[in-house]
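A further point concerns the way the authors explain their paired sequence and structure data. Since the whole study asks how a given chain folds, the encoding of that fold should be made plain. A single example would do more here than another paragraph of explanation. An entry of this sort, consisting of the sequence and the corresponding backbone structure tokens, reads as follows:

_____
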Amino acid sequence: MSQKTVAMLLAGGKGTRLGELTKDIAKPAVPFGGKYRIIDFTMSNLANSRISTVGVLVQYSPLMLNKHLGIGAPWGLDRQAGGLSTLSPYSDRTRSSWFSGTADAIVKNIHYIEQFEPKYLLVLSGDHVYQMNYRQMIDFHEENEADATISVIEVPFEDAHRFGILNTNEDGSIYEFEEKPENPKSNNASMGIYVFTWDVVKPYLIADEQDETSDHDFGKDIIPALLKDKRRLYAYTFEGYWKDVGTIQSYWESNMDLLDDNNQELVTSRSWEIYPNEKNLPPEYIGEDTEISNSMISPGSFIEGRIKDSILFNAVETEKDVSIQSSIIHPDVIVRSGAVLDRVIVMEGVEVPAGAVIKTPEGQEPIVISQSNIRALIQSGGHENE
């Protein structure tokens, strides 16, 4: 069962900064871009990179995520040799605990990795939006005879203090890692994408698991330990769109980015497709007097009114005289006649009452409208009747 590369996809974070969006579902399962979920981008990168042995590490609120992943058919991972495996915390005779860090999640599943006798371990996150050929990164790792390769993206220097920063020599070798430095020496931000030579990193993972003072984290513990021992670490520079969807603001921004002509290939490319696991729905219906500009309308929707700079998911219904601007409307939402929505996120299954006016004030994080809070929004003045 030997496989050259085993990918481990970390998809178990709580996602608390996404508030209502992750109240009942894992962050990677949050709807994104009209007909996708956030994790579809990483899963599609794996499919397009022809990496066919993938372990997805789940933890918090995994029901919808597990249902979405299934046996991996949309990404060609429904196979007996390798394929997709969903890995959750478990108890045995010696321990019973949640994953306590990124490295801990991997070491607790060493038995899964070892069965494939891999040469390389690819560690990924399930909550980033980007397109990357992991094969090219692995080739870079091999060419440099590296023990670890970390993908980096250049960020504005004024933002570098918010990231883990990798300082490199001219040949791309890493000599220092700084976690959110006050005065960064470079703007090479870690993307949380790692390629490790398995035989090298395995003993570090096992040793870290025994260290009670460790955070059991790749960035905080494993990478510094490798650097301390003067292992061969290299930075792989990524050029392209990349977004960590960690807050409501970044979630809204990354969806709105899809409406920019410069970013539309993220979901329209025929050479690097994003594969959704979606229902078979009829085409969308657009009413006779409907006005739509710079928006994405998904199948199964019945649309009337005015839609501008917005993303509408599957099976959305908007009635006459509705006005929706700069908003994200999740599946199965009904927006009744005369309602006005401006820079908001409406969660799945919500019915917005007739005449409702809900707008996010300028400079504030977009309002998230859910089944549980829409009444409170109405009572607090977030809603008014025309």
In short: The mean pLDDT is 90. The radius of gyration is 22 Å.
